[in-house]
Amino acid sequence: MFFLGHMSWAYIFAVAFAGRRGGKLFIPVVLMLGVLPDIDLFLEGFGVGHHTFFHSIFFWVALFVPALVIFRWKVVPYLAAVVQHFAFGDLLVGEVMLFWPVDLSYFGLNTSMFSVFDVILEAAGLLLAVGIMYFNGDSKRLFSVTLDNLFMFFPLLALVSSMLFFTVDWPIIPLIAYIWSSPILTTIVIMHLILTAFLSISFFQGLRKIKIRTF
């Protein structure tokens, strides 16, 4: 799954696990946790395989144990944001070493990231996340002039970096022609641009808060 889907579903799962007792989530952290397991993409040069231990339930639960002991329920939505990455998204679209180190087998449907199924999954996640944000008031927070929104820079950077990861070797003109030749690619790109615009506006609102304080 693309970072688009991972971020969207991270928010959905985090909100679901937060419930009424979870309070307001710090959304920049939720979005970053949603894509954090894919840090292994940048560690392959060090012998770390993609979809291996960074995509294991046991690995992340172990990392979260201290926070769970200290903060208890408040941490669960953030753990859910991480776990959904591989126990939901990558499990449906790819294959992951879900139970490392207990079991080194790969689990998943192993469908393509460029399939109709993946596009539907990512589009559903984006639309559902936007709808939830609107009805629970999170969209109002994310578009308000507040310093918290400065942290939206990090998910924005992650999303843009993931887009460049797939396109860096393509000359711009052939790339555009290739994208528009495929309805699936066109849909994926449009959805990425929508999320990029959303994160950019939120980050810009954080910058506005700095300017207001300066003057």
Describe the protein.
- The protein has one domain (3-214).
- The protein is built from nine helices and no strands.
- The mean pLDDT is 90.
- The protein has helices at residues 3-18, 27-35, 57-71, 76-93, 116-136, 138-142, 153-167, 172-180, 183-214.
- The radius of gyration is 18 Å and the shape is globular.
- It is mainly α and 215 residues long.
Short summary of the structure?
This protein has helices spanning 3-18, 27-35, 57-71, 76-93, 116-136, 138-142, 153-167, 172-180, 183-214.
Write the layout of secondary structure elements.
Blueprint: H1 3-18, H2 27-35, H3 57-71, H4 76-93, H5 116-136, H6 138-142, H7 153-167, H8 172-180, H9 183-214
| Residue share in helix | 55-70%
Number of strands: 0
Low-confidence stretches: none
Structural class, please?
mainly alpha
Rg (CA only)? 18 Å
Total number of domains: 1
| Coarse morphology | globular
Largest sheet: none
**How far from one another are the termini?**
43 Å
Percent range for β-strand residues: under 5%
| Number of helices in the DSSP assignment | 9
Series of H and E elements? HHHHHHHHH
Overall mean pLDDT stands at 90
